[in-house]
Design goal:
CATH topology of the largest domain: UDP-N-acetylmuramoyl-L-alanine:D-glutamate ligase
CATH superfamily of the largest domain: Mur-like, catalytic domain
CATH class of the largest domain: Alpha Beta
Strand order of the largest sheet: 7-8-6-9-10-11
Helix content: 25-40%
Number of domains: 3
Structural class: alpha/beta
Radius of gyration: 23 Å
Distance between the termini: 58 Å
Largest sheet: 6 strands, parallel
CATH architecture of the largest domain: 3-Layer(aba) Sandwich
Shape: globular
Number of strands: 20
């Protein structure tokens, strides 16, 4: 466990110059630590650290091992050579999340959400519920939303007060690095194949997700998807008060809430109308957020008010425009196969979708998409590094056009789509082959559509 007092006066090395690395370096420097930031890639434009933080880019040098502890950015592979060497030398390694939490008061109510899909929507919805509730409390309780969404926790950890709410979206990367993480409320939405290249297989990916519950106690709360078979296998390890949800008619676990097609009905008697979001998966996201909020005392009427005004998240089955009778939908957040399946199932069962698929592959087989492609898709438009693999695994089963990049795919779809069709960006891949992140990919898609309309 990272204890600031134990390491005070010692030198920290922050591995990685991404958002979480920059925030962690600034946090530690602001608390009086000497800090080195070490970035493997060559970076020409460096963050402004006011000369207080030493930075090296273009590779890790021996300076890393002269530090007393290391803060690992979540995207760095666990078997990275620098981490292996640091372990040999018995240099302490901490996650950015646990370092940041060390500066948050222990009394803060921490709620954590993870899952392969739906994390951002559920975290945002829960954050909005707690903001409304906290504003009505006396004294007022502020709500902070951080982690894998928006700003890293390190960016504002020292601002948080003991009575506040802290809602964290946590990824499998963050969980695998967090040995002592103990949220008051832990929510697991689902588990499907993702990040297998990073974790080295499905078993390790599941173990990373299961860490969410590892340190919880009997006075904490656990919320999980009772309709997800992999989630259900983790129940035996849960020591906290358990609540399960599912919008499906059949589920492995007894659930505390169900959906009648109109309302979400809770075993304790509450009846809530879910937000007006597309897809049954968003009903489950609402169930999860409501169970988390109820567990910390939020009245049902506040949850309902937030449900009524909550709108779809950007880059998540987001309508962009309708042009010449063709709908353009941005689902750039679909960075795994299951996310793409969820997006496809949000449409009518008729093959009218021109699906833009591809990017940086994450290790799973595209063959799992075939039943859904045949039901919903007219043609697959492949882009990015994964084009060869997509063509190999779907060959002869679906019409595929090799487009290479997003601009070509949008232009091709606009030329061939007919009135009533849908052009859907739901790539099932990471974006890092051609874009900074999924957000930039989605923004570029929306710009391309607007350019199409304006010409």
């Amino acid at each position: 466990m990272f204890k600031p007092a134990k390491f005070q006066g010692k030198k920290a090395c922050v591995l990685g110059l991404g958002r979480s690395g920059i925030a962690a370096a600034r946090l530690l420097a602001g608390q009086g630590f000497e800090v080195l930031v070490s970035e493997e890639k060559k970076v020409s434009t460096l963050s402004d650290f006011d000369g207080k933080i030493e930075v090296e880019t273009g590779g890790h040098t021996a300076k890393v091992f002269a530090c007393d502890f290391i803060v690992k950015s979540p995207g760095i592979f666990p078997n990275h050579a620098v981490l292996k060497e640091a372990k040999k030398r018995k240099i302490a390694i901490f996650s950015e999340l646990e370092v940041a939490l060390a500066f948050v008061p222990k009394e803060t109510c921490v709620l954590a959400v993870t899952g392969t899909n739906g994390k951002t929507t559920t975290t945002s919805l829960l954050g909005e519920i707690l903001k409304e509730y906290g504003a009505a409390c006396t004294p007022r309780r502020n709500t902070y939303v951080a982690g894998n969404i928006g700003a890293p926790l390190s960016a504002f950890a020292t601002q948080i007060k003991a009575q506040d709410f802290l809602v964290l979206e946590v990824s499998s990367y963050q969980l695998e690095d967090s040995t002592f993480f103990r949220p008051k409320v832990a929510c697991l939405l689902n588990i499907t194949p993702d990040h297998l290249d990073h974790h080295g297989g499905m078993d390790k990916y599941i173990r990373a997700k299961a860490r969410l519950f590892k340190n919880q106690r009997s006075n904490d709360f656990a919320v999980l998807n009772g309709g997800d078979e992999l989630c259900a296998t983790l129940v035996g390890a849960v020591k906290a008060n358990l609540a399960a949800f599912s919008a499906l008619p059949n589920h492995p676990l007894k659930t505390d809430v169900f959906y009648d097609g109109d309302e979400i009905i809770f075993s304790v008697g509450h009846r809530l109308r879910p937000p007006q979001l597309k897809g049954i998966h968003n009903v489950e996201n609402a169930m999860a957020a409501a169970l988390c909020a109820l567990s910390v005392g939020v009245p049902a009427e506040i949850i309902q008010r937030v449900f009524q005004r909550f709108e779809a998240m950007e880059h998540r089955i987001e309508p962009v425009a309708t042009y010449k009778g063709v709908s353009y939908i941005n689902d750039s957040k679909a960075t795994n196969l299951d996310s793409t399946i969820i997006a496809l199932k949000s449409f009518e069962k008729t093959p009218k979708i021109w699906l833009i698929l591809g990017g940086r592959d994450k290790g799973a087989s595209y063959e799992i998409l075939l039943p859904y492609l045949k039901t919903y898709v007219k043609e697959v438009l492949s882009i990015g590094e994964s084009m060869d693999k997509i063509e190999k695994e779907l060959k002869g089963q679906m019409p595929i056009t090799r487009c290479n990049d997003l601009k070509t795919a949008v232009q091709y779809a606009a030329t061939h789509a007919q009135e009533g069709d849908v052009v859907l960006l739901s790539p099932a891949c990471a974006s890092f082959d051609q874009f900074k992140d999924y957000e930039q990919r989605g923004q570029v898609f929306k710009q391309l559509v607007q350019e199409l309309i304006s010409h």
